[in-house]
Design goal:
eight-stranded parallel beta barrel; Chondroitinase Ac, Chain A, domain 3; 2 domains; about 30% helix; binds (2R,3S,4R,5S)-2-(hydroxymethyl)piperidine-3,4,5-triol; TIM Barrel; alpha/beta; six-stranded antiparallel β-sheet; 16 helices; single chain; about 550 residues
Length: about 550
């Protein structure tokens, strides 16, 4: 009896310790070659949407929004937390809006990713409180090369850093006290689209001083230790200057705008990592930063430079490890190109912002399939007209149903995705024993839409669940099959079922054959249909 009591006491001590040490908080976990987000002890895929910048400034303005979010099958809202609103007076914090958002999100069965609109929001410091903005002596701004100040707090000031991390730490402590049991808040974006403008580097006196100094040993050490995997464009700059392992910024990286950007990236990273670190000391949940992608024809200083962009990703990583990953915001069309750059060193992909256009839902499904992403989130999610009819909701419903199958197969090379339009109307995937040719549904020329000059974007996810067995889900695709074994082998459809997961169990709604599979020739999901099909293939001579 005594032993049982002793054991259960020990168990409860261990459990408390586990919670106390944070293992049970939302966290990231490696699975095979991919990363899962764990929330409430289970893998979680973010079916997200980011609110417009001012929507969450009062609960009143949020009132008409909640229904839209749930109508689109979101499970997570990305919402700013504004420094100017939580610390209107220095040292006096008001978290009522934070609490109200958390309580309401819980009611709606939604999770939250908070975006810390602290020192920087799209380069600028528009969300710094009045007492910061009005005291430029204590909280200095960047200067351009003409000695003109801009409304951007300089990352070189200790006062700026302390003011930001103090507020952020208080916020994180509050979230921990208020929410650690429920885990409504699952991740934090630290700052928003950091970037230097209108010059490639800051000319504030402390910045000028730092620019003359030696490149910090931590950065050079990181570069030497990770030489094999550095981003090629960054390695090239270092190589061009002779792979120097000491010297000032211009000695190591050469004279020019690229060096100004590397220099700024280092100091932005140091600052933001320190903010994230003190935040994590209060409550350790995943934290990331987001990047405003640069137009390739523009030079540093012409775009928000030195943010967490792929060409300076090594500098950002060398600056600390409190930031778990860097994320792209999409307002340009080169979806695959940029994602490939962000994941090239094995980091997880999460897309916190994508313009909420007609392509967004399909890119979301592709991201979850091809990149096995943690999640996806169109920006200005509340701008939708009829939320119930929105394709995003239909795609999110497919992802919701497939989540357990995705998580079970994550990181094992068993999941992929396709993204199709008129210009890229077909894509080949090899999975298991088969080669799959995915084509845009309009390539069949069976629908009037095929005659249009522009085809809607479509996409699909494919998951291998057993030998010869796959789930294929999405919209606007037609798939044919080949055997991978040898040229004399043919592939055929043994069985295709359209169905639904109900309470995690597959339920067949229709057995497909005849016209639905073109008498066994293909699997098809028409444009405007959103389906999951389970297909079993076989081979014959
Ligand atoms: C990207 C920013 O991160 C958002 O907060 C918002 O300003 C959008 N741009 C507007 O397009």
């Amino acid at each position: 009896m005594f032993n049982i009591l002793k054991n259960s006491f020990l168990l409860s001590v261990l459990l408390t310790m586990q919670i106390g040490f944070g293992q049970n908080f939302p966290h990231l976990q490696k699975k095979g070659n991919k990363t899962q987000l764990i929330v409430n002890g289970n893998p979680f895929i973010i079916r997200g949407g980011e609110l417009g910048n001012s929507s969450a400034t009062t609960m009143e303005s949020m009132e008409s929004i909640w229904d839209k979010l749930t109508d689109m099958n979101l499970n997570t809202v990305l919402t700013p937390i504004y420094w100017e609103l939580i610390e209107k007076e220095e040292g006096k914090f008001d978290f009522s809006l934070v609490d109200d958002l958390i309580l309401r999100a819980r009611k709606e069965n939604l999770k939250l990713v908070f975006l810390w609109f602290g020192s920087w929001k799209n380069s600028m410091s528009s969300h710094a409180p009045e007492w910061v903005k009005l005291n430029q002596k204590k909280y200095p701004r960047i200067k351009d090369d003409k000695n003109k100040s801009h409304e951007i707090l300089t990352p070189f000031s200790e006062n700026n850093l302390a003011a930001d991390f103090n507020a952020f730490q208080k916020l994180m402590k509050h979230i921990k006290d208020f929410d650690q049991k429920e885990q409504t808040v699952i991740m934090i974006q630290v700052e928003n689209e950091i970037g230097m403008l209108p010059t490639a580097r800051d000319y504030y006196p402390l910045a000028n001083e730092a620019f003359q100094k030696q490149v910090p040993a931590e950065l050079l050490k990181y570069m030497q230790q990770n030489k094999e995997k550095l981003a090629p464009e960054f390695l090239e700059i270092w190589k061009k200057n002779g792979f120097k392992t000491k010297g000032n910024w211009e000695e190591v990286f050469g004279k020019g705008l690229q060096t100004d950007e590397i220099f700024m990236a280092w100091y932005f990273s140091l600052f933001t990592n320190k903010v994230a670190k003190v935040g994590k000391e209060a409550y350790s949940i995943p934290m990331f930063v987001n990047a405003a992608l640069n137009a390739p024809e523009k030079k540093p200083g012409e775009y928000p430079s030195a943010g967490p962009l792929p060409h300076v990703m090594d500098v950002w990583k060398a600056g600390g490890n409190a930031i778990d990953f860097l994320s792209p915001d999409f307002y340009n069309p080169n979806f695959k190109h940029w994602n490939d750059l962000f994941i090239r060193q094995g980091d997880p992909l999460f897309i916190p912002e994508h313009r909420f256009d007609a392509t967004a839902p399909f890119k979301g499904l592709y991201a979850i399939g091809h990149y096995e992403a943690i999640g996806f989130s169109p920006f200005s999610i509340e701008s939708v007209g009829d939320a119930k009819k929105e394709p995003l909701g239909k795609i999110y419903e497919l992802i919701e149903q497939l989540r357990p199958v995705i998580e079970q197969n994550k990181g094992k090379g068993k999941i992929d995705g396709v993204l199709l339009d008129k210009e890229k109307a077909s894509q080949i995937i090899q999975l298991g024993n088969y080669e799959f040719t995915f084509k845009h549904d309009y390539t069949l020329n069976w629908s009037d839409g095929a005659k249009e000059a522009v085809w809607p974007m479509t996409s699909a996810i494919i998951i291998e669940i057993a030998t010869d067995e796959f789930y294929i889900a999405g919209s606007g695709i037609v798939v044919t099959f080949k055997c991978l074994k040898d040229i004399n082998c043919n592939a055929g459809i043994l069985k295709t079922d359209q169905g639904k997961f109900e309470n995690g169990k597959w339920n067949t709604i229709r057995h497909f054959n005849g016209d639905q599979t073109h008498q066994g020739r293909h699997l098809r999901i028409a444009v405007d249909d959103y389906e999951i099909q389970k297909i079993k293939l076989y081979s014959y001579e």
